[in-house]
Amino acid sequence: MRALRLAIVGAGPAGLYTADALRFQDRLDFSVDLFDRLPTPFGLLRYGVAPDHLKMKSLTVTLQKVLDDPRVRFFGNVTCGRDVTIAELRSHYDGVVYAYGAAADRQLEIPGEGLVGSLSATELVAWYSGHPESVEPPCRLDETGAAVIGMGNVAVDVARILTKPLAELRSTDMPQDVLSVLAGSALADVYMLGRRGPIDAKFTYKELRELGELDGVDVIVRKDELTLSASDAVAIANDPSLERRMKLLREWSLRRPTGAPRRLHLRFGVRPVEILGNGRVGGLVVERCLALADMKMGHVGAREELAVGAVFRAVGYRGMSVTGVPFDIGTGTIPTDGSARVLRNGAVSPGEYAAGWIRRGPTGVLGTNRADGQLVADSLLLDAKELLDLRTHSTDVMDLLESREVTIVTCDGWTAVDRAEIELGLEQGRARAKIVEHNKLLAVSRARSMGNAVGP
Ligand SMILES: Cc1cc2nc3c(=O)[nH]c(=O)nc-3n(C[C@H](O)[C@H](O)[C@H](O)COP(=O)(O)OP(=O)(O)OC[C@H]3O[C@@H](n4cnc5c(N)ncnc54)[C@H](O)[C@@H]3O)c2cc1C
Fold this sequence. Notes:
36% of the residues lie in helices and 20% in strands. The chain has helices spanning 13-23, 43-47, 54-57, 59-68, 86-92, 121-128, 153-163, 166-169, 176-183, 205-211, 230-237, 240-254, 292-296, 357-360, 368-390, 397-403, 411-427, 438-449, and strands at 4-9, 30-36, 72-76, 95-98, 104-105, 118-120, 145-149, 189-194, 217-221, 262-268, 270-278, 280-288, 303-306, 311-313, 317-318, 341-344, 347-354. The radius of gyration is 24 Å and the shape is globular.
């Protein structure tokens, strides 16, 4: 029996974990081509996970092993649905796995959202992570106030990066230009705003606790915003992690500010209602959230204006459709059965699978994608015989892409970029410094993988 030929669309954690699970299916002979629209692998692990979370970032070392496997080819800088259609992929491969993530952000839907300085956390994260599509700073940090809307781990990441002393960021892989902008930041007050109470916040205890350990930052919590309802008390009684969270927040609410240069205000039970400004953000109106009964009576919560020059919304992510792939607009995901097989018009479509955020929605931690990858590999093992019977193949997709003059970054190309980033980092006294510009990534991947020494 010939080897099963597979394509994975998206070389983020879900795509790589899927390929990894295949590597350990002893009874499956396969080859896999991993496509990514970016010249580099790792998806949000490279361009989302906070640069100062070095332990989490080091997962790239494990996932790199997948790319080093001779059965795996990397096709970086190839956008599926544009450079190669989904129909073409389906005709070239026995199976196609969609693992292209869900990186579109959600809107607040309030007046003033279009002002300069009002942006998604995604845009800020992309910039400080050195994403090739985010070379320029997406906003100025020349005002003393900024608001981060949301109470999840992404909001916490953004608040931490904006307030953390620069000395502690210098050892990360952040691009030099980003460090320079952060060095000139005027920020003194960062407000993290959550619509609901502290029990409903989505952040984890570990991420929250880190905020209280930042040098040069006073964390400010208002006692009156920690009031609990009867149902909150029940939730705490059943969940020790919520009890620890409340203990920490109460402790912070009793702290007296030390006069540190920066203040991080954690605000609960307030919602943004309008971003003020003339052309660019000049303030944010927030409203105290009321109980449903009060709202039904037509009451309006007390309003307050925060002096901020930037508003970052971190209120969730959404998947986007790719032409040729079934998509559920309501959930922003690809419809699948319980075993990661893609459904077309409600029926399993042979040879199509989905994994990661585009299958489940933007939830869970990096490791959750591992279970997803395993699910796909298990289904592929069951389906392999049927898939091999379905198709015959003659051409390599590489020929098709080359005929279209698509510049492909291969595994060797990525290795060259990896090496160049490590060298650049060493020159700057750190383990790695990211190369940002798309054309530089391509130039380094091409020249260095051919043995020429081209500096980043
Ligand atoms: C800001 C942020 C911080 C996070 N921090 C943490 C953390 O500290 N710890 C943790 O456990 N989790 C964290 N997460 C969650 C974690 O990043 C996700 O669980 C994980 O990245 C999802 O993996 P994925 O492969 O489904 O999607 P992605 O990581 O988004 O990967 C999808 C890949 O598909 C590619 N792609 C998209 N469209 C196409 C196309 N048409 N053709 C080809 N390729 C395409 C993309 O370029 C990308 O490389 C964070 C998420 C965010 C947004």
